[in-house]
Amino acid sequence: MRKYWKFGMLMAVIVGSLVWLATAGISGSQTYYKTVAELFQMGGSAQSHRVRVMGDVATNSIVRSNGQVYFTLVWEKQMVKVAYEGRDPLPDTFKDGAQALADGRLGPDGVFHASEIQAKCASKYTPKPGEAPDSIQKQVQGKSSYGS
Fold it and tell me: Does residue 123 carry a pLDDT above 60?
């Protein structure tokens, strides 16, 4: 009987450890996705939670200095200054006017301190509404009638 009790305790410790690791991993990687306007509506909780903030990179706002990149995100006429302090290089699509996602925390000084930056693909690569991509248009133009 004692052998089963020891085995049961060992299994309880293992299962408990796995549950603890899973919940710690989930809460540590949880981020909230917000626009610039929603970031400021969060108030003080924006400083205590990891947040992903989305906006457009303001024209002529990207400044590289001492291994950091500073820029401004704009969304619905509201702006937030961002200081990127990450190790990874910025994406090639990160330019003036590009949509970007900054992952980090809002500092007490009102500057958003980002550890990760993602830039969305430029809209010039997507067809306009109601227009087919160039490759499909060329295929359609090459066929003069049905049956050819």
Answer: no
Contacts of 91 (CB under 8 A, 6+ apart): 117, 118, 119
Contacts of 39 (CB under 8 A, 6+ apart): 46, 51, 53, 80, 106, 112
Output phi, psi for 78, to 5 deg.
Answer: -115, 145
The residues spanned by each domain of the chain are 33-122
Neighbouring residues of 32: CB distance < 8 A, sequence distance ≥ 6: 49, 50, 51, 52
pLDDT-derived band at 5 (thresholds 50, 70, 90) equals confident
46-89 confidence digits (pLDDT tens): 777 788 888 889 989 999 888 889 999 998 888 999 999 878 88
Eight-state DSSP code of residue 131: -
CATH number at 33-122: 2.40.50.140
Backbone angles phi, psi at 105, to 5 degrees: -135, 150
Using pLDDT thresholds of 50, 70 and 90, give the confidence band for residue 140.
Answer: very low
Which candidate, 21, 44, 46, 23, places its Cα nearest to that of 34? 46
Query: Do the Cβ atoms of 105 and 49 come closer than 8 Å?
Result: yes
